[in-house]
Fold this sequence. Notes:
Number of strands: 8
Strand content: 15-25%
Structural class: alpha/beta
CATH class: Alpha Beta
Distance between the termini: 33 Å
Mean pLDDT: 97
CATH architecture: 3-Layer(aba) Sandwich
Shape: globular
GO molecular function: metallocarboxypeptidase activity; zinc ion binding
CATH topology: Aminopeptidase
Number of helices: 9
Cofactor: Zn(2+)
Low-confidence stretches: none
Radius of gyration: 18 Å
GO cellular component, one term: extracellular space
Bound molecules: N~2~-sulfamoyl-L-arginine, zinc ion
Strand order of the largest sheet: 1-2-4-3-5-8-6-7
Amino acid sequence: SANADRYYSLEDIYHWINKTRQEHPEMVEVIMIGSSFEKHPLLVMKLSGRRAAVDKAMWMDCGIHAREWISPAFCQYFIRYVLTNYNRFPDITSLLDKMDIYVLPVLNPDGYKYTWTTNRMWRKNRSVREDSVCVGADLNRNFDASWCTEGASSDPCSEIYCGQYPESEPEVNAVAKFLRTHKDTVKFYFSIHSYSQMLLFPYSYTYELAQNHAELLDLVKDASQKIRRFYGKLYRFGAGAKTIYLAPGGSDDWAYNQGIKYSFTFELQDQGKYGFLLPPSLISSACNDALLAIKTIATRALQKI
Ligand code: 0X9
Ligand code: ZN
C-alpha cells in the first residue's frame, strides 16, 4: 500500500491503483470514467463496505491542478486509511457502512505527468488548440458554473484560462458526466487542492450565499477547530468568494448546483513556506489535517440526511 513518505509519479499511481484493487477485491472496484486529452485513463476507485447496497455516496477528487502534489498523495492516503481501518476504527467503519466512497486520485494526469518530467510548476491540463501556441486550460475554471465570468480568463495563455466552452476539457466532461449520472446518490463532494490551509464551500462565482450557508459554515468551523486542537494547524474557512477570491467555473460550485448540498474545496498545507513544493516529510501531517476534516464533516452531516 502507498507510503505517506514520498510522492508517487503518474506511473506509480496507476500501478498502485491496480495493486490496491488486487489486494482488496471485496472492497475496491476501479471504474474508468473517461480519458484525458493525452488519453491517460481517468480511474475512479469505488470503496464499499462488506454490507448490503446503500443509497448514499461520497465523491472526492484530487489533482485537478498539476503542481499541487500533496493532493493526489492525500487521495492515496485516504484510500489506504479506509482499507486498513474499516472494521477496526468505529468512525470510518460507520461512514463506509452508510455510504460508498468514490475517489479519483488524479483528475489531471497529463498535467501531473508534465510536472514530473518538464515543469514542476505547471497548473493546467495539456490540451492543445489549433489557434494558439499556448497549452492547457484551468480545469477548475472549465465547469459549467457561471463559466468564464470575473475570476477566469478567455486568454489561452493565462493560468486561469477557462477553455473554449464549459466542459470543453475531456477531464472535466468525464467528471461532470459521472456525477450527473450519480447525483441522486452522491451527497458529499470534496475537491482537494493546495496550498494555504483553507476549508471552502460554495459559492466562489458569486458573493451570494448558498441556501444552506449557515450549516456549511458550521461544519467547516467545527472541522477547523478540531484540526487546531489536535494538530495545532490553523485553517481558515468560509464561502470561496469571500475567503479566497471570486473564481467561476469551479467543480465545487457546479456540484453544489447539481444538488450535492455538501460540497467543499480544501486547500491543504502549507501556508506558503514551501507552497506547492511541500517536502515529503510533511505529507502525513497534511493528510492528517484533511482526513480529520472529512471525517468531522461527513459524520455530522450524515446524521441529518
Ligand atoms: O483557484 C482555484 O481553483 C482554487 N485555489 S488554487 O490555489 N488551488 O488554485 C480554489 C478553488 C475554490 N473554488 C472555486 N473557485 N470554485
Ligand atoms: Zn488548486
